[in-house]
Amino acid sequence: MGGNNMMNNLPRWKKNTYAIWVGNFATGAGASMSLPFLPLFISTMGNFSQWQLSLYSGIAFSITFLSQAIVSPLWGRLADRTGRKPMLLRAAIGMTITATLTGLSPNVWILILLRLIQGAFSGYINNAYALVASEVPTNQSGKTMGMLTTGSVGGQLIGPIFGGIIADAFGYRIPFFIFGFLMFLATIITVFGVTEKFTPIDRNSKLAKQSAFAGIKNIHIVWAMIISSMLIQAATNSINPIISLFVKELLTSHSNLALISGIVAALPGIATLIAAPRLGALGDHIGPQKVLVAGLILSGAVFLPTFFVGTVMMLGVFRFLIGIADAALLPVTQTVMSVNTPHEAISRIFSYNQSFQAIGSVLGPMLASIVAGVLDYRYVFLMATLLVIINLIVVLWAYRKDGLK
To answer: Can you tell me whether residue 194 is helix, strand or coil?
Structure first.
């Protein structure tokens, strides 16, 4: 009873944050339970060469984000008219259906088609950020965004390990069925756990017709955060299509390949889970720019030496360190956008951000597939280092342009 009274006394934004945290956890766990083994799943569908396997894996990873990039602004405009809760439900229900059907894929082309459809209906985590950002007090924004990130990242930590055990024991299809079930749970939690007090904008009003960027403070910085989201996703996701194949190359024995790949895929999540709330709170105190720049420098300093790794153990160490860098990146970009954006435009701005993240998630895996196919898996880490350097230049330029130190 005491626990119920405590929950009843919490402000609405906190109750929503806790419920959405669980939804984010389910989304992160489900996606990461299946995605690290996508190349291994595809390899069971035909006798493919390394080039074909790299290419098909890159397409299967990135096509979800391609459709997401196209439709996100449409969903964002709809969210500013209908509220963010309907968008959370749309994403959760859409992924429940498509993830389950992906587990039934008879060949690689059906799998790719289902991944395309999934992208059009996905976006739970980004809509979660938008809903919470529209309600959270400004002085708690960094800490709350950091906490929200631990939901998806906590799921991404557990997902690959359980997914690896399940895939080794029962095959690569079962994790997709579990992904579908977890998204069904996210749907139920969102229906009953999230309450949104939403006032729709009159579609004929000046506010509805003007650009989403019209009322934004520090426009160069907000655009830099959107571009940063794209480059962070490109660098981070460029590794995903090749991680299990690179682990296979480094291993002398291929027993428990899926489990070991899952552990390596989960290590960044462990680090981000530990670091994200602390770095978010630190950003509230010292300013998000310093945290973001430090994260980018660390990211480049980790990607570069990963090129030289010769053992799975060293790969795991560097993947853990990249998780710490990630904790200083995406939550901070979300915080900066929420602080600088009027509430009535926040869904549209976050939807543009989601589009750019999705574009990064297309470019990263596709470039990685080409680099891995033409050169070698480890050259992908050099490509990621270059993306981080470009990102750092963009951020420093934007802060100088808007006169903020």
So the answer is: coil
pLDDT single digits (tens) 90-119? 999 999 999 999 999 999 999 999 999 998
Distance CA 397, CA 296 (A): 14
At 403 the pLDDT is 65
pLDDT band at 405 (very low <50, low <70, confident <90, very high): very low
Per residue in 310-344, pLDDT (tens digit) is 888 888 889 889 888 888 887 778 777 777 777 66
Q: Who's near 258: CB < 8 A, 6+ residues apart?
A: 37, 40, 163, 164, 167, 168, 172, 244
Per-domain boundaries in the chain: 9-195+213-401
Nearest to 261 by CA among 34, 90, 27: 34
Q: Where are the alpha helices (DSSP H) in 141-173?
A: 141-170
Asked if residue 184 lies in contact with residue 274, where contact means CB atoms within 8 angstroms, the answer is no
Instruction: Please tell me the pTM assigned to this model.
Output: 0.71
- The answer to whether 218 and 235 are in contact (CB under 8 A) is no
Alpha-carbon distance values, 232 to 25, 210, 296, 307, 309 (Å): 21, 29, 9, 18, 22
* pLDDT value at 1 more than 60: no
To the question of domain 9-195+213-401 being in CATH 1.20.1250.20, the answer is yes
Report how far apart, in Å, the C-alpha atoms of 26 and of each of 207, 349, 373 are.
35, 25, 33
Asked if residues 255 and 168 have their Cβ atoms less than 8 Å apart, the reply is: no
Short-list 182, 196, 258, CA closest to 29: 182
